[in-house]
TrEMBL record:
Highest classification ranks of the organism: Eukaryota, Metazoa, Chordata, Craniata, Vertebrata
Descriptive protein name: OBSCN protein
Pfam families, A to Z: I-set (PF07679)
Keywords in alphabetical order: Cytoplasm, Disulfide bond, Phosphoprotein
Subcellular location: Cytoplasm
Amino acid sequence: TCDTGDQQTTAAVHLKEPAATIVERLKDVATYEGEDVVFECLLSRETAQDAQWFLGDVPLQSNEMNEIRVQGTRHSLILRKVTLEDCGSVSFKVGQHSSAA
């Protein structure tokens, strides 16, 4: 705001969060049935954008079988005690960017 006493003008600043990109992509993992598996993605920046993990086409949430962690720019998915039914594509999406393994 600029105020000269008898006149006043006001303006606003609006910010948009720059899109995060994936700098370290998912890597394929081979393991034994009953073991835990860890997938990790590293982003270019910390972001408030929604990031989502998928097993096949199914969106994942943290529960007793899946643990989703965010530590700064590192996003991790731990699949607990995998079975043969867990074989397939794991993907991570943030904004318009995605990675799969």
